[in-house]
Amino acid sequence: PAPFGRKKKVAAVGKKTAPAESDTKPMSAVEEKHVKLLDAEIKKVVEERKKYKKLQAEYKKRCAALDQAEGEFDRRRDAEIENIKVMKEKAEKKLKRDRRVLDQQSRTLLAKMPSKKDREEIQQLEEMLERERANNKRKERAHRMNEDRLRRQVAELSRKNDELKDEIRRLEKRQLESREEGERQRERATERGAA
Description:
- The protein is mainly alpha-helical.
- 86% of the residues lie in helices and 0% in strands.
- It contains three helices and no strands.
């Protein structure tokens, strides 16, 4: 539907409207000026509406892409977190197993008079256990950093989504204000014409 019920007037912007056969009195210069102003305002509103619809379509497209990206991101994040948990559990089991082996070997060795070879073996086992602990700490630190990175990405996506929503609200408000201003001008022009 044409804005404000003036479809014929939009097509006639910039042209002098010919009076109908039933008209007995041509429009005055003031009336013509008001009609031109109204036509210009209507054309402006039509252009604004086209821009708004284009922005709205682009916003919907971006929202759909954002939803798809968020879904893919959530799937990747969940898979990564599950993988981290599995790796952590495996590392903890290996650490416990190594500790039990070391404890058992330590008790066995302590039950005997330790020889130089036994002491060297104990030393090697302790060093191996220390290396395993350090390696496990590095992996946990890397897992935490990866999880923090994933959280930051989620926060950034949410922020961009909020910005797009704010932009749409601003455009809708501006269109409403422009429409109301056009209607007010039309009413003023009608009142002046009637006077």
